[in-house]
Design brief:
Strand content: 5-15%
Number of helices: 12
Number of strands: 9
Mean pLDDT: 94
Low-confidence stretches: 325-334
Structural class: alpha/beta
Radius of gyration: 19 Å
Helix content: 25-40%
Largest sheet: 7 strands, parallel
Distance between the termini: 28 Å
CATH class: Alpha Beta
Length: about 325
């Protein structure tokens, strides 16, 4: 299992998105189950774990997910890469005395919950248009100099924003939505990141379950705190229209002795060397299945045939990777 790099930070080729253990997929598991799920992922070989301060049930309060991740990985802290995210409210810099003070306050709170004295990868979760990204980059540079973080990143951003930030303090990673049905970043974000040695960390790489082949038009999502109700591709009419994509994945999965989800992840690993997807689930078996995609190797011929077959499929209900720029953070629940 060859590792990959986000900037200079080495990680397993697939990470674990931990959000679903606290938010976004309805009823959350018991804490002990969640801790065991994270530990099983580590035992399987995963060294990259992604969380955020805002991941709590229904996004009410802060830190639920960070606390779980911290408890699960405390004993192996120096063998894993921890990524977390912050959002800066417009009034916070004035209240704290400076933007740097606000960012550091958020970071220290996350570090306490994660039971660590540093964070490997610290993201700005969403752009706040009232706060210049260059100033955020400068604050992150100071935290790097203090040894409190090893790298920093941005999420759901355009190439222009990435470039403006990277010119101030070099980025380690960009976390944007990316999957077989959300390919907007291929146009210029991924090329820019490749050119500047920035990792691309796709969230929702299985399109909220669409690419697993397990969802149908009869699938009912939970009433409470289930973001799948708002995912365009999962609306009944789009889900039905996107079935040809799932059928293509199913054919390749059958030939490779894999699952549809594994083929969709193996595809992006084959396509770009700087891509490290972070599929998420609240189910232990699905978590390990997703990680197992790093053992599914597509030959050049298989990859070309997959690309060709997918190219004949029309995509219905795209969300877009630049959704958050210039809009309220709480409108977007990643």
């Amino acid at each position: 299992m060859p590792h990959r790099k986000l900037g200079t930070i080495e990680v397993s080729p697939i990470g674990m998105g931990c959000m679903g253990l606290s938010h976004g997929y309805g009823q959350i598991p018991e804490e002990n189950y969640s801790i065991e799920a994270i530990r099983q992922a580590y035992d399987f070989g995963c060294t990259f774990f992604d969380t955020a301060e805002v991941y709590s049930p229904n996004l009410e309060g802060l830190g639920h997910n960070e606390l779980i991740v911290g408890k699960a990985l405390q004993e192996v802290r120096h063998k894993v890469v921890l990524a977390t995210k912050l959002h800066i409210g417009t009034a916070e810099p004035a209240q704290d005395g400076s933007l740097y003070a606000s960012v550091k306050r958020h970071l220290l709170a996350s570090m306490q919950r994660l039971k660590t004295d540093y964070v490997d990868l610290y993201y700005l979760h969403r752009i706040n248009p009232a706060i210049p990204v260059e100033e955020v980059a400068e604050a992150m540079g100071r935290l790097l100099g203090e040894g409190l973080i090893r790298g920093w990143g941005l999420s759901q951003v355009t190439t222009d924003t990435i470039d403006r930030a990277h010119k101030v303090t070099a980025l380690s990673a960009v976390q944007n939505i990316y999957s077989l049905v959300e390919r907007g970043v291929e146009e210029d974000v991924i090329p820019y990141c490749l050119q500047h040695h920035i990792g691309l960390v796709p969230f929702s790489p299985i399109a909220s379950g669409l690419l697993s082949g397990k969802l149908t038009v009869e699938t009912k999502f939970e009433d409470y705190d289930d973001v799948r109700k708002f995912v365009p591709q999962l609306k009944a009419e789009n889900l039905q229209a996107n079935l040809p994509i799932v059928e293509v994945l199913g054919e390749f999965a059958l030939r490779k002795g894999a699952t549809c989800a594994q083929i969709s992840l193996a595809w992006m690993l084959k396509k770009y060397p700087n891509v490290v997807p972070i599929p998420g689930s609240k189910n232990k078996e699905r978590i390990l299945e997703n990680l197992g995609a790093w053992n599914v190797e597509l030959s050049d011929e298989e990859f070309a045939r997959l690309e060709e077959a997918l190219g004949r499929c029309k995509i219905h209900g795209q969300r877009g990777y630049d959704e958050a720029e210039g809009r309220s953070f709480l409108q977007h629940k990643s």
